[in-house]
Prior knowledge:
single chain, mainly alpha, globular
Amino acid sequence: MTKKWFRIGMVSVFLLSLALRFWGLERFNTLVFDEVYFAKFGNNYLTHTPFFNAHPPLSQYMIGIGIWIGSHIPFWHDTVNGLTGSLRSPWTYRWFNALTGSFIPLVVAAIAYQLSYRRSFALLAGLFTACDGIFLVESRYALSNIYIVIFGLLGHWFLLLALDNQNWRRSFWLVFAGIGFGASVGTKWNGLWFLSGAYLIWIVAWVIHFIHSFINSKLFFQSSSLKEAGGRASRGTGETGEAGEAEVSTYSPSSSSSQTPLQNLTQLNIFHMLFYLGIIPVLIYSIIWIPHLQLDKTYGFIAVHQQILKFHLHLGGNSPNVHPYCAAWYKWPLMTRPMAYYYQTAESITEPLPVMGPPLPAGAGQVIYDVHAMGNPFLWWFGVAAMLFLVGMLVSQAVIPWLKEKRFSIPATLSVDTWIALYLVINYAANLLPWVKVTRCVFIYHYMCAVVFVFLAIAWFVDRCLCSYYQQLRALGVTITFIILAAFIFWMPIYLGLPLSPDGYKLRMWFNSWI
């Protein structure tokens, strides 16, 4: 793919994201789902109203900034409400999230490009991210999860840029990586998993380095002793010692002309990690709390964290008795329990849009307005399959040489695709597996930090298919891409809250657990 077409493609992806997030942003003149908290909290910072915040405050700062800027823009104020505590247009407390969410596909594409320097991989990653439903829904309302994801992804992108540079440029990007990771944690505590993924891939890189060094040193001593023995044999029998040379040749490191910044991970030492990805994130996280603690002086820095922890520990278990949309972590990858953020019915499409109050009795409403926090089903399902494929690829690369040679071996230089597989699998696991031990009620949106790596996995798989010499694999890549795009269009009405007939609504609710 040429640079020109790559740029055209990325601009198109961004414009698509922007248009979908801003189209009909004022459609529901009310507070949707957790806007009852976050939009109010953002307004509280502007009105200097003290309140208890059950999460770190960065996302509410961002929403408050958006409200302040939006209130000074002389348009998009046709509808207003006082639900945030002040008379505001829905546009004012939603537009900043919409703008921020529009950039997430670009950041994902930037990470894909930095991992591989393949423009086709980057474009597919950006396109698939732009075609996901839950990211679209979360971007269109005053919610916080968009900020966890974008700051965490920026941290990873800056880390990859740091690995691609040297000296002061590397330090420059490492500082920004630390800021990104600190800001992600400063939005919600689970932003910490992005940082843990960075540490884990660094540790794995060093483990691979040490294993390779150990094998090399072992082979060096073996080859030295074998050559010495071969020399004695040749002197005694006239043979050339070919046996020793044949033994050494059983370890043949593979090399790849391709490069990825991940190959430079061992250039980062413990000081780099502890300072740039330790002290700086902690410092940023602490600074983020200052405005909130100045506003609400009920608790100090330590006490407020104790109160937050207490709040989450008392939310109850993962049971429908606690909340009808509670969904344990193992229900997320296959999307067995998405959730409705908004649901109202009307008698006709010409009737004024329902805002608040209970829906009409069953069967009375002929028009359904539903906003479903639901991913693109085929993007998620294909993505999980691609992630499992990467896991299988990594396992096979370790097992097959062992079965052939009856000993563990590792190539001197891992291929770019192997590094990408390690990066995606490790970061996916780092953002998903910590939820296994969480006993409080959790929801499908908590999967957003992990599922972005699923998008990268399916983009990688499709890119490899499209670049294949085999026509069947190229056809498979085209088919997967078409199905993902078609699914996004099919389920778009419940992402955007467009009017649907009861039959149209049921057509999109494939399983009872989706309702």
